[in-house]
From TrEMBL:
Domain of life: Bacteria
Name this polypeptide is given: RNA polymerase sigma factor
Domain RNA polymerase sigma factor 70 region 4 type positions: 122-172
Annotated TM spans: none
C-alpha cells in the first residue's frame, strides 16, 4: 500500500482491510506516543495511553469524517484519553506528595532525619487529605502528575488564574494546618 493517503487508508480500514489499518497505526504510532508523553511524562503510561487511543480509533473509525484531516481527530482522542488517564490517577490518595515533601536527601541520612522526614511526609499527607476537593485536585495534579498550571486549567476546564489561586490557597491552608499541629 505504497503512497496511499490517510483518507484512502481509512476507507480501506473501514471496509475491513487490516493491512490498511496497520499502516495507519504504524504511521501515527510515534507521534501519538510523543503527544501522550508530553502530558503524562511517564513512558509506560504513554505507551498504555497510545494503545488505548488506537483501540478507540479502531472502534470509531466508521464515525470519522474522511473529508477532514485525520491527525487532528487522532490528537483530540489522544488528548482526551490523557486527561481521562490523569483524572483516574489523581483520584489516588495523597500518599506521594513528592514535590511538596522533598528534602535534600543524602545517600544515607541519619535515623533522626529519617524519622523527621517520615513525620513531615505524614503531616503533609494528612493536611492534603483535609483540603476541599477543588484544592486537593490542583495540588495532586501539580505535584503527583507534574502538570503545569496551564495543563491543569485545561484538564479541569477552569480559567488559568483560578487554578493558580486554588494552588496558592491550598498551600496556605496546608501551611496553617501544619502550624496547628
Amino acid at each position: 500500500m505504497i503512497n496511499l493517503t490517510d483518507a484512502e487508508l481509512i476507507k480501506r480500514a473501514v471496509q475491513g482491510d487490516d493491512a490498511a489499518l496497520t499502516e495507519l497505526v504504524q504511521h501515527y504510532l510515534k507521534p501519538a506516543y510523543a503527544f501522550a508523553y508530553r502530558y503524562v511524562r511517564n513512558r509506560q503510561d504513554a505507551e498504555d495511553i497510545t494503545q488505548e487511543v488506537f483501540v478507540k480509533v479502531w472502534k470509531n473509525l466508521k464515525k470519522f469524517d474522511a473529508s477532514k484531516p485525520f491527525h487532528p481527530w487522532l490528537y483530540q482522542i489522544t488528548k482526551n484519553t490523557c486527561f481521562d488517564w490523569l483524572r483516574k490517577k489523581s483520584a489516588v490518595p495523597f500518599s506521594e506528595l513528592d514535590k511538596i515533601k522533598e528534602i535534600a536527601a543524602d545517600a544515607s541520612p541519619p535515623p533522626d532525619v529519617l524519622a523527621d522526614q517520615s513525620l513531615l511526609q505524614d503531616e503533609l499527607t494528612a493536611a492534603a487529605e483535609r483540603l476541599a476537593p477543588k484544592y486537593a485536585k490542583v495540588i495532586s495534579l501539580y505535584h503527583q502528575q507534574n502538570l503545569n498550571f496551564r495543563q491543569i486549567a485545561e484538564l479541569l476546564q477552569e480559567p488559568l488564574n483560578t487554578v493558580k489561586s486554588r494552588y496558592r490557597r491550598a498551600l496556605l491552608l496546608m501551611k496553617k494546618m501544619l502550624k496547628l499541629n
